[in-house]
Amino acid sequence: MSEMVGRKSRQRTRLHGGRCPLILMYHSVAPYDHDPYLVTVRPQRFDEQLRWLRRRGLRGTSVGELLGALRAGTARGLVGLTFDDGYADFVDHVLPLLRRYRFTASVYVVAGRIGGYNAWDDAGTAKPLLTAEQVATVAAAGMEIGSHGLWHTSLTSGSAAQRQTELLDSRWLLQEVSGQDVAGFCYPYGDVDAAAVSAVRAAGYRYACAIRPSRLSGVHALPRTYIGDRDRTLRLLAKRCRHRIGTAMAIPDMCDS
């Protein structure tokens, strides 16, 4: 029995020594005056954050590439970069900086609202979303396009049929627009439960992004670290440490696939 416990302990150490990647969660990058939901990072701050990664020998990459590197054992020094909602400012303020640093990222688009605005943020500033042409431009630039649902609806409410519509219709639409095989999903609002995870897996997504580590953490509920406009050197260091501690406390095989 003690030998079995020892093996499990060693497995946990091995997995969390390199198998649970750091994935940063962004939304919008743009100049702003009003941002009640704290989803916007100023371009200058974003540039500083990317420089911080590069100075530490880290490279930002899409989640799809990151998971592939984990399976191949070549993920050392890689950090996932994700952008929820598919804001149009990605083209103007994010893409040029990613090209400068030779980073890539995953952009999770609300498929039914392409070319619209963030109608789900009632108290926030109305922000335009990527058009179909811009989604194609982002994909052609080497970024990964993922689904953030059809209408930015929580998967933990509603019927199984509604979940299926959100997952399947959004994936089909984004594949048509981007020309990519859309493999990743991102849970709107970070809402995730066992039924949502099962539905995402059944819909054919190879991975999905959540927010916080939990008992559901795994390749279909990857934990991420929120990054905001206030995050400079010390806060970035603290968040990197918190990620290591938080994922080490989750289930042993959370990132093993």
TrEMBL record:
<dbReference type="InterPro" id="IPR011330">
    <property type="entry name" value="Glyco_hydro/deAcase_b/a-brl"/>
</dbReference>
<dbReference type="Pfam" id="PF01522">
    <property type="entry name" value="Polysacc_deac_1"/>
</dbReference>
<keyword id="KW-0732">Signal</keyword>
<protein>
    <submittedName>
        <fullName>Polysaccharide deacetylase family protein</fullName>
        <ecNumber>3.-.-.-</ecNumber>
    </submittedName>
</protein>
<keyword id="KW-0378">Hydrolase</keyword>
<dbReference type="GO" id="GO:0016787">
    <property type="term" value="F:hydrolase activity"/>
</dbReference>
<dbReference type="InterPro" id="IPR002509">
    <property type="entry name" value="NODB_dom"/>
</dbReference>
<feature type="domain" description="NodB homology">
    <location>
        <begin position="77"/>
        <end position="257"/>
    </location>
</feature>
<dbReference type="InterPro" id="IPR051398">
    <property type="entry name" value="Polysacch_Deacetylase"/>
</dbReference>
